[in-house]
Amino acid sequence: MKINLKKEFFGDREFELLTHGDMKVTAFKYSTGIEAVKVQNKRGYFILLPFKGQQIWRAEFDNQPLVMKTSFEEPFPTLEYLKTYGAFLVHCGICGMGVASSPEDTHPQHGEIPNVEYQKAYIIADEDENGKYISVCGEYDYNVSFVKHYVFNPQCKLYENETVLHVDSELTNMRSTPMEYMYLCHINFHPVDGGELVYSAKYDKEHIKVFKIIGDNVPEEQAKKLADFMDKVQENPALHHKVGAQGECYDPEICFAINYDGDENGMAYTMQKLPDGRAFYVSHDTKTMPVGVRWISRGPDEDSMGMVLPATAEHLGYTKAKKAGMVKTIDGKGKITFSVVAGLIEKDCADKVESKINEITK
């Protein structure tokens, strides 16, 4: 079953759009005017903004909220990245990505697609070998004559009995000539003190890079504390694996670039193992997203564990990525798909993933 979404469907009151087995979809509009759909199974839900960036605004499973602490309770109708910053997952790119850190950069922060208006949005309810599922999908068509024409099609799939989201995003070059692109999947989990980061990379400074970048607006004493902690983590990356450890400092933030190892299919794995044995979980395809950006921000107003933001390049903008040979190219009429799985997994599954990580990195 496919339902094409129209903005006229959405009102101030939440209403049921469809049911599928033990799953259902409801639709509503935030007080700010942003349309949203809520996809639920027996174990939890996710809320996605179908026309605004196809952002996954909220997600919760087994009574465990996944999303970062943020000052935004609702999304706002703006294209400016930080003026509506509170989603669990945001698509970033395509003409540029990251912070415009060079004078030559003209792209907005994290590119043009995070808050863009989608021309099409739809829901699919179906079943495959893994069971019944519901997907929320969209299509954004970007076209500048003589320059670039692409279509970006993300979909977020939830199965009837699962607590993870399957996010597959297809990028199609609509022109006959090759096209440069950048992409980053910005996933913002909540940090849980007492948790531990476990991931399929070697825990040394050759594979984990700390970006010692501190904004001019950070007070001198705070900046020194942050810089000192950055130096310690760069020398011994394992220092940052315990969440909430004494002496940690992520105010306002620290960014890392991680050289991941993948399994036989090129899939890499990242977990924030929670004190109760469950884990926040991400797997991503290193063949299409070879860079693992890590972003941690822990302050009184924002508290986020971006334990891995799968990406095609580091997060310092188009110009630096181009000079470093990190800007990718897709052939004329070509396609590429970015695949990520993100969510919550139970203790037994987390133990198995940890064993797999140990096998990959041994």
The rounded distance between the terminal residues' Cα atoms is 45 Å
Major beta sheet summary: 9 strands, antiparallel
The structure class reads mainly beta
Q: Which series of helices and strands comes N to C?
A: EEEEEEEEEEEEEEEHEEEEEHEEH
The residue-averaged pLDDT reads 97
Helix content: 10-25%
Low-confidence spans: pLDDT under 50, at least 5 residues?
A: none
Assembly state of the chains shown: single chain
SS strand fraction? 35-45%
What's the number of extended β-strand segments? 22
Gross morphology:
globular
| CATH architectural designation | Distorted Sandwich
Rg, nearest Å: 20 Å
Highest CATH level, the class: Mainly Beta
Spatial ordering of strands, largest sheet: 1-9-10-11-12-22-18-17-14
Written description of the protein model:
- By secondary structure, this protein is mostly beta strands.
- It has a single domain (2-361), classed as Beta-galactosidase, Chain A, domain 5 (Distorted Sandwich).
- The protein has helices at residues 220-235, 318-323, 347-361; strands at 2-4, 15-20, 23-29, 35-41, 44-48, 56-61, 64-65, 89-94, 120-128, 131-144, 148-159, 164-173, 179-187, 196-199, 208-211, 254-258, 267-273, 279-285, 291-298, 303-311, 328-330, 335-345.
- The strands form 4 sheets. It has a 9-stranded antiparallel sheet. A 6-stranded antiparallel sheet has the order 2-3-4-5-6-7, with no helix packed on it. It has a 4-stranded antiparallel sheet with strand order 15-16-19-20, with helices on one face.
- The N and C termini lie far apart (45 Å).
- The mean pLDDT is 97.
